[in-house]
Design a protein that fits this description.
By secondary structure, the chain is an alpha/beta fold. It has ten helices and 16 strands. The protein binds NADP nicotinamide-adenine-dinucleotide phosphate.
Length: about 350
């Protein structure tokens, strides 16, 4: 089988496509034929070991996981002894887990992995990206921000993977949503359910006063200090990206002048929690409350280009890499999926 692999940290060109033996599922394992996997900023961070802290768990001198790729859509190709949750031929999507390995034609996962069946009638390949943004956004919107009907929620970076999922989830929970992104993402944000749109190149959302219950900085490009006064008293600023400032604030009790600020990390949540959230994702998909947003599609051979594109930080929603089995005529096309707004 083909895999996208790297034997050292570095720029996009350290990743090359190589042949490797196809894994065989052991007892309790499931072999998935991957059709689509996604490249994210997190993959780029692991590929180049930047930030440096990646090396402490990813391998000090060279990457321990030489095949990246967490979130996938695929088809169950074989099951190991004792597996009851999956059947051969079933279409599945989700996260292969911290061992990664999803950027390959086949990946073996535990039967207990955060992988779920693809609901009937869903955009199968697009789901290869959605679980990344959704599994990150859901804990922020539901558990950290506790968004409820009527809350005024601002999403900074609303066009990105996490932001696009966050807009849809905040809308689903009944919030009045303000999306902040570049003007080219206006139509997308409004179609995803945002009530208001701020073009970040034309206006600065941090100049608002006492306006929002929640500011979710999905791309971590602002700060608590800059955003604080735009929050209502008791409001919360949440960020996906660690900084000394937010960590210092959290060490000092997580609030200042009656507004709270918090960083949360979602990637290392227990697999059982992710699995439970993916089951909720399937319900939301069935209700039409959330949809995948696919920006560009690359072939496996174009994996380095996919990394370069993601690193440019301009994408809308997800970048997919199609494995040869699914590649067909789609590789290389710009296929931004504009979707109908979620049901109220
Ligand atoms: N905390 C956690 O557990 C966790 C988990 C996963 C990922 N992350 C981190 O979350 C961050 C976001 O990930 P993602 O996958 O959603 O990113 P992404 O999809 O790659 O983000 C792309 C978006 O970034 C926006 N952007 C670029 N520069 C900006 C700026 N200066 N101000 C505002 N927006 C800007 C662009 O919006 P416009 O073009 O519209 O301006 C673009 O739509 C990454 O840093 C990732 O490492 C954290």
């Amino acid at each position: 089988m083909k895999v996208a692999t790297q034997d050292r940290y570095g720029g996009p060109d350290v990743i090359t496509v190589k042949e490797r033996d196809q894994p065989v599922p052991g007892p309790g394992e499931v072999l998935i034929a991957v059709h689509a996997s996604t490249v994210t900023l997190a993959d780029c961070a692991f590929r180049k070991a930047d930030p440096f802290i990646v090396r402490f768990f990813g391998g000090l001198w060279r990457p321990k996981a030489d095949v990246l790729g967490d979130n996938i859509a695929g088809v169950v190709a074989a099951i190991g002894e004792g597996v009851t949750r999956f059947a051969v031929g079933q279409r599945v999507h989700g996260s292969v887990g911290v061992a990664l390995g999803g950027m390959a034609e086949f990946v073996c996962v535990s039967e207990d992995a955060a992988i779920v069946p693809v609901p009937e009638g869903q955009d199968f390949l697009g789901l290869g990206g959605l679980s990344y943004g959704y599994l990150t956004a859901m804990p922020f919107i539901r558990d950290e921000a506790r968004v409820k009907a009527g809350d005024r929620v601002l999403i900074n970076g609303a066009g990105g993977s996490i932001g696009a999922a966050a807009v849809q989830l905040a809308r689903y929970f009944g919030a009045e949503v303000t999306a902040v992104a570049s003007g080219r993402h206006r139509e997308l944000a409004l179609q995803l359910g945002a009530d208001h749109f701020i073009d970040r190149q034309e206006a600065d959302f941090t100049l608002a006063r006492d306006a929002y219950d929640v500011i979710f900085d999905a791309v971590g490009k602002s700060s608590f200090a800059a955003s604080r006064q735009a929050l209502k008293p008791g409001g919360i600023y949440l960020t996906t990206v660690p900084s000394w400032a937010i960590m210092g604030l959290m060490l000092r009790g997580g609030q200042k002048h009656g507004r709270r600020g918090r960083l949360a990390t979602t990637g290392l949540r227990p697999v059982a929690e992710k699995l439970a959230d993916l089951r909720i994702l399937n319900e939301l998909l069935a209700k039409g409350a959330i949809r995948p947003v696919t920006d560009r599609v690359f072939s496996l051979a174009e994996i380095a280009d996919a990394h370069r594109y993601v690193e440019g930080e301009t994408k809308a929603g997800d970048v997919l890499v199609l494995m040869p089995v699914a590649e067909a005529a789609q590789a290389g096309k710009v296929t931004m999926t504009l979707v109908p707004g979620p049901s109220p």
